[in-house]
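Subject: two folds for Thursday's group meeting

Dear M.,

Sorry for the delay on this. The cluster queue was jammed most of the week, so I only got both jobs back this morning. I'm pasting them in the order they finished. Each block is the input sequence followed by the predicted structure tokens. Could you check whether the formatting survives your parser before we put anything on slides? The first protein is the one we discussed after the seminar.
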Amino acid sequence: IETSEELSILSIASVQRSDSANYSCFVSNTFGRDSQTVVLSVKVPPTWLKEPQDIRVKAGDDVVVECLADGLPKPTVKWISSKGKVTTGEVLNLANFRTASSETYECIADNGIGDSLRKTINVFFSEPLRLSQKSPLKQPDEPVVQGKLFKLTCSVESGTLPVNWTWFRNGQQLSNLYKDYRFDVRIVDNYARSSTLNAYYISDESEANYTCVATNASGSDSQSIMLKVEILSNWINEPNNTVAKLGDSASIECSADGSPQPVIQWCRRVSSETCYRVMVPAKFDEKYSLMQVKRGESARLKCNVSGDQPLAIKWTKDNVKLEKLGSHSYEIFETTTDFGLLSELLLRTTQRTDGSIYKCEAENTHGKDERTIKLVVLEVPGPPMNVHVKEVWSRTASIVWSAPYSGNSPLTKYTIQYWRHQSAPHRLHEFVVSNSQTTALIKDLSPGLSYEMTVVGENEVGRGEAADTVTFVTGEEEPSAHLDHLNSRGRDPFCMEQSMRNLSPSDRL
């Protein structure tokens, strides 16, 4: 402050937003005093509160992106898409995203002070992967023989790149670092549309279940194969000469191993040669299994039966026979194996109705056996039921709902969403409650306003469908601010209109 006999100057260096105020100067002498008040309004250019970022989505997703800026006066925010569409408001909402290509959106925040804030983001579209059904993971055409090399290849039929490939052997992940004296692995083209697994030093331990998994931003798909390795026959128990007394029983043990499993015959040499063969009835090693699959993905149910040929396998769903031909929703494949027959039921795109009990019955001339597979289709939860507002106050509201269909996966949480119900877009508010709750209290509302709200359930598969929107109006309350410039005006003999200043819109009479 600089003061002389005739003048006083108040200087503020590096003006800040907090310097906005009313400033009063008082002067006095022996004859009296006087004062003067001036208003200092500091205008602040926009700054980011929350800068929007790129987002990657898949078809059907609800896209919500926030672009928040601060300044004085408060900046106005708008979005401009790469197609020229303009949307006002801080929140960009794209419901049920269906665009099959990426788009860009520019957020602009401006208050007329300084340069406006601009940020362009990309909304990347990612199509779920689907592995090739025309060239599936399968047993190599050349026999896989002990001591040689074999290759397995997986290919992507459709989906968005890049693809990350992962290989498993009996559930254990393989990598280029997986190496010992029995098994040496090389994985090539790990980010292309196909991946090849090369394995060296083949032994009996190379015979295993191999799975390739392809993953991108929208999900994954997998294929598996039980690799068969040809191993030379070798004795487990070699038969030896046996001496027995006349009339006694004699037992001679003979067993061998190899792949395919050796066929053992007994021959009796006297005046003529007679051979005896062991007959093997149809048999499943695994009688029961449980399989889970996400809705929309493919499911491959397998029945691997051992026994003498010819073998026949029949599939049923809930005790209703499934025909091999005549259906667009499934296919049945059969492959002859060294030990019997492998039958596979492929459900192309699983739906809720596919969740059921499947049975495969195998039969040959020596007997029959049965295997049961329970298929559980996992999906996102349904919309919460009976959503309604129980009680409403001026700044809070109590809401209640009933648990939705779980999608065969336990619910993990609920998200409550609410917003102002007016013609212009308003910011979406949301908060999360635990899966055990079916009630919630919405707080920090404004009195005398209309709101809309909904509830969304979520499980391990993803976020489900939102419940039907419910509208409610908060109660009025007495003004909390000081009444300034209260004016009254008669409109007619029976009505009087009052108005006031310096009150928030929610407190206006």
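Second protein, same layout:
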Amino acid sequence: MNRTLSSALASLPANLLGSKTSEFDSDSPWHDRNLGRAEDRSAPEHLFTPVGYEAGYRYPLIVWLHSHASSEFELPNVMSQLSLQNHTAIAPRGTERISRDEEVFTWRQTPTHIDLAAQRVEQCIGIAKQIRNVHSDRIFLAGFGTGGTMALRLGLRHPEWFAGVISLNGPMPTGFSPLGRVNHSRGLPILMGSGLESETYDLDAVYQDVRLLQTAGLKLDVRHFNAGDELRTPMLKEINSWIMNFVCSGSATAQAI
């Protein structure tokens, strides 16, 4: 690490970097199934199969973390706007139910929920590989809102799992050392997108997060969209373009899990 970067990292808040050792150990298009009961730390997921699926082709995999007060069943709408042919995708259910009347969920940023989210993502990757032909070096983690924040958290925690991480309108997580493995994360491509009129993630907050990640030496692309706090088609089209750029260049290098 060069002296400039070492000095910059020394100025970052301790709760972001953590200690030297991380506190964590390191043929319809739609198909859904139940992984098991909640007490087994498993949860339902939703799997997307691309239109015209060819079993002999290894597809990029998008693991989608849904938005706040939603569920894994937002995946069909997401993929219908992102791409119906280029990727297979799977969405785990959020870690906490937030309504007694509706099955809607969110992603909480506590150690227990972070661990549970990581386990669900890992399970989903395994399921997708069992059911569909997935390219192990082209696994991308993406999410919107609280799902985007959790995507950043898990991508920085387990960079070896992913070829890239995408967060749309999802602020950088705070607390519990999100940059605890920063030395291992610098080769991980990150795409951050935000709505110019967002009330929950305004431009000042976006720029603060961008400065933080750049100071940490992370590989970051930033996009702004004419949107507020809603998930818009141009955001999803940008995800498709960003991923396909890696696929076509052959630069996606996630390790198999």
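Two things I noticed about the second structure. The domain at 3-249 is CATH 3.40.50.1820 (Rossmann fold). Confidence is low (pLDDT under 50) at residues 1-9, 19-28, 30-41.

Cheers,
T.
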